[in-house]
What does this fold into?
Amino acid sequence: MMAKYAEVLKVTLQNRLAYVYDQIFRSLGMVIHIFIFIQLWRVTFRNVGGPVGGFTLPQMIWYLVLTETIITSSPRFNGRIDAEVRAGDVAYSLNRPYSYLFFQYASFLAEWLFLLPINFAAGAIVAWPLVGGIDWRPEAVPVALLAMFAGASIQFFEMAAVALLAFWLEDTRGLWLLVERAQWLLGGLLLPVEAFPGVLRRIAEVLPFPHVVGGPARLAVDFSWQAFGRLALYQGVWLLVFAVVASGVFRLGVSRINVNGG
Amino acid sequence: MSTAVNQGRLGTGGQGTPRPRGRGLLNWSRFLLAYVTTNLQVQMEYRVSFISQVVGMFINDGLWLAFWALYFTRFPVVNGWERTDVMLMWAVLTFGFGLSMGPFGNTINLSQLIAQGQLDYYLALPRPVLSHTLVSNLWVSAVGDLLFGPLVFVLFTHPTWPRAGIFLVTSVLSGAILLSYNIIVHSLSFFIGNAEMLSYQLGGALVSFSTYPPGIFRGAAKVFLYTVIPAFFLGAVPVTIIRQFRWDLMGLLIVVAVSSLLLARWVFYKGLARYESGNLMVMRS
It folds into this structure.
């Protein structure tokens, strides 16, 4: 059952690996962003004279390396799904022995697996010499990777749910842009949610965004099993919600398709 | 080809008949205006797409302002810069970006056009090759920036009429520097082959560096950001001028803007002499 999706993942990954140098060059932007963040937070920590949002300077920088990695490693499949729905290409998948959503999900994961190590390396190459490392707990790395995987999965189904609205809307890219930017801000991409003012922090915490972006990053730099348990619970709930919503939108949308031979 | 290039450099519409400089400038301005108007009309045919791109850029810029608003709520001053200063910097940057990269939207495609030998079309026409190439595409998202900048200036920076005047002038100069820099980095395709990715990254670097308070950079980075990547001239210097007007800084900004435009023009035409046609048969739509 899952073997065909594993094969899709493998083939997509192989295709992407052919352009590994191109991707390394593309990650130059990440190097610049992390360099700028280091300058900004150095000054900020000097002015504050203590921890910010519970982080030391190196923890903050590694947190930002990870949030940037999470965001930049999430391939923008919304454009692809939106285009396939609007062009009617989605109809080709209907009589094939696979689920359209899981086919896209497998391709998405392959791209994510390809991008994640490259983008992390690009950030680490700047962070390591400028702020040094932090005391990573050995169990933090695999557990945080698992949380990132769950976060990426939430992101995919969230993206698919919005992009599949193309069955009804002329263009869903603007709508996704709105969701994506909200995710950047309220997910803790640039500033940990823990450093937000009270009300905004409470609003952010009930949304799915921090469990995709800031949660896994925080787990890696400030690990505790308690935090993992809490994050896993939220991630499980949001993953279920978005998977159900995306499949529901897909089913409703497909019922509107008229296939006229050809 | 060299004939076409020379015609292009005369570039005022006459096929080799020199015209008075003032009239030439007027013709050139009319030409640019007509092109921008037509491009705008074309884009407005796809109204939903146009509006969504403009709104999208509004949201994108708004995210950054929201981040800075959050940041300054927690940390009110960063090396002498406060929330209003960053808002003012974003107002200048986005307005300058919109003014330059909006109408001259083909700038971001320049390296690709050069690498793929697609400048032939512009070489054969009796208009300045550089400006004709740049103006032949409108960057719709930049229209969002064009509207966003003045809105932020009015809403968040305690505007007065004199400050509005200085805001307008410094934004134009900021846009001119941004445009020149992009022409130069995209012209690298003339010299090193396909520089599409490199020019994209260098262009992105300028924008990234220019959106942060200058006080966070020190030493070599600061020198670098006044020279090789002139990020401070895009936002930080205009903000200093708008906060408290200084003729010396305004003069410096004008000199940098004019000289960078001249340098960009020189680099482009120097590169154009090395250009090789792609002999492509393409349909322009």
